[in-house]
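Subject: design request, 435 residues
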């Protein structure tokens, strides 16, 4: 080392020696750092343990509800759980949604004029949304009606079908259910801000506007073009396509216009995987779009979106059909008279000024079925019904009363059947090309 450099070095050492180093504070800081690191490590471990436990509880929750009615009944009594219990009980696709953490919790509440509304969460895909909710008040709300309901996207009302059950048969201060919105066209979820708007028919016309947005990515629909033909006693149909989204599976079926029978519907549509597990039609909520009387309809089924089957087969059977010309009743509302009806076993029809009551036998138990579909007047115009009710008495007869808007209607009116239990023989299958 050179002399100059050694001199500078000695000066530097002497200056360092003059500095008062806080040894006790440094040691305390070191100890605190170690403690903080260990605490953060425990917190991370605790967080992962919490996630694992939560997933395990969710799996137990989802599985137990489908296996044990008693467990489902107990869970449904917990505020906010009833809609999820119902969905899991009747739809295996929703079970998969919860199991795969696709459900998004919201917990957004508002209270106005003594009414409290909570938007519990959302399940969304390209086809629509399910919005579980709870609604309560310090008084009976079992027959409180909704006056208006909208789902808005970035301030604009979404064109969507709405399915929900609001009315309760007995007095209650709490209603727990779900709104099901079915989009007419896929929507763009990028930078999407939603609002659920509800107006009630109480004295103050109470309104709720609940904004929400989604954090989880939206799953893309899996689409399969088939164009496979099936034949039932000479009646031809074409399975055009199958689309599978988290909320539902859509099966689009077209009818051959040269059929001599009109196909009313399909009471047995199911998807089966290589293990024989099956997904059937939806029991509540939107079941179809389109109309077979127009030649094409899309039927909705439970979804197996989150499964990765090696093989998937579509099975169709119990095809309902009536000979063309015997697939409608003809009535005159002015004369309050049934002009013609097909010679179907057990069929009874009554008409008054604007209502039609029809009875047909059924082999089904505990199944609400709509008997009457499209109505056409003498000028070829559609006659709309503004209310309808149907039920199954204990004597295996379906009775339905339909009320029609007959203003400006040209009699006679043909009302076509949407259901009658006249089944064509056979079951047909087609494999869905998964790859």
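Subject: RE: design request

Done. Sequence follows.
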């Amino acid at each position: 080392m050179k002399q100059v450099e050694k001199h500078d070095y000695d000066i530097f050492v002497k200056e360092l020696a003059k500095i008062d180093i806080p040894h006790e504070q440094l040691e305390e800081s070191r100890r605190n750092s170690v403690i903080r690191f260990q605490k953060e490590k425990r917190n991370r471990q605790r967080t992962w343990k919490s996630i694992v436990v939560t997933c395990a509880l969710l799996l137990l929750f989802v599985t137990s509800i489908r296996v044990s009615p008693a467990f489902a009944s107990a869970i449904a009594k917990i505020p906010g759980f009833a809609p999820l219990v119902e969905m899991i009980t009747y739809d295996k696709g929703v079970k998969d949604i919860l199991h795969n953490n696709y459900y998004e919790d919201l917990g957004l509440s508002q209270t106005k004029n003594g009414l409290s509304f909570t938007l519990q969460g959302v399940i969304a895909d390209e086809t629509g949304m399910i919005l579980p909710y709870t609604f309560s008040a310090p008084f009976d709300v079992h027959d409180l009606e909704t006056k208006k309901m909208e789902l808005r996207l970035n301030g604009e009302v979404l064109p969507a079908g709405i399915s929900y059950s609001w009315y309760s048969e007995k007095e209650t201060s709490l209603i727990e259910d779900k709104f099901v919105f079915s989009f007419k066209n896929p929507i763009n979820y990028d930078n999407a801000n939603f609002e659920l708007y509800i107006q009630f028919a109480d004295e103050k016309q109470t309104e709720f506007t609940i904004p929400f947005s989604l954090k989880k990515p939206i799953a893309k629909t899996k689409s399969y073009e088939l164009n496979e033909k099936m034949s039932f006693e000479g009646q031809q149909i074409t399975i055009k396509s199958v689309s599978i989204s988290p909320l539902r599976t859509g099966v689009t079926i077209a009818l051959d216009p040269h059929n001599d029978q009109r196909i009313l519907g399909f009471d047995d549509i199911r998807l089966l995987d290589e293990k024989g597990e099956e997904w059937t039609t939806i029991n509540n909520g939107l079941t179809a779009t389109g109309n077979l009387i127009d030649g094409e309809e899309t039927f909705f089924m439970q979804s197996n979106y989150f499964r990765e089957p090696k093989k998937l087969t579509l099975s169709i059977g119990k095809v309902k059909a009536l000979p063309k010309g015997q697939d409608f009743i003809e009535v005159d509302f002015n004369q309050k008279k049934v002009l013609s009806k097909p010679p179907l076993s057990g069929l009874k029809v009554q008409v008054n000024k604007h209502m039609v009551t029809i009875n047909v036998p059924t082999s089904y138990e505990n199944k609400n079925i709509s008997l009457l579909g499209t109505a056409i007047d003498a000028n070829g115009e559609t006659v709309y019904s503004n209310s309808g009710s149907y039920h199954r008495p204990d004597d295996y007869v379906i009775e339905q009363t339909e009320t029609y808007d007959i203003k400006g209607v040209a009699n006679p009116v043909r009302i076509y059947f949407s259901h009658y239990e006249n089944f064509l023989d056979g079951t047909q299958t087609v494999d869905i090309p998964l790859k």
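Confidence is low (pLDDT under 50) at residues 1-6, 11-19, 43-79.
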